[in-house]
Amino acid sequence: MFTGPRGGRITTAVLRDATHWDEVVSRLGYEHLRRHDLRHTGPTWMADAGVPVHVLRKIAGHGSLTTTQRYLHPDARSITNAGTALSAHLSTRWSPNGPQLRVV
């Protein structure tokens, strides 16, 4: 997802050194946070923005959609929005007074 100054991929070691990763996460109290976690955050945010999963697969460099799907972690708001969209669809299809879905 990131490219270096010469256009190539940035290795995790370069990212660690360039960002002072270890010191920053320690100061923030997130010692458990790994650089690899960024490979989950970026695609998840892009998916939430509407980027199709087959495009995310290519961006992440995965060989299969199954791998890409494992990297996606929708938040509660995304799940709530999906239920709201389905409720709106059902009410226009059948009855405005039909069942409304909610997250439990």
UniProtKB/TrEMBL annotation:
GO biological process terms on file: DNA integration; DNA recombination
- Enumerate the UniProt keywords alphabetically: DNA recombination
Q: Which Pfam families match?
A: Phage_integrase
Q: Where is the signal peptide?
A: none
Q: Does the keyword Lyase apply?
A: no
Please state what the protein is called.
Tyr recombinase domain-containing protein
Domain (Tyr recombinase) spans 1-84
Transmembrane regions = none
According to the UniProt entry, its GO molecular function terms are: DNA binding
- Give the coiled coil ranges: none
The record, for InterPro entries, names: DNA_brk_join_enz, Integrase-like_cat_sf, Integrase_catalytic
Q: Gene3D superfamilies this protein is in?
A: Intergrase catalytic core
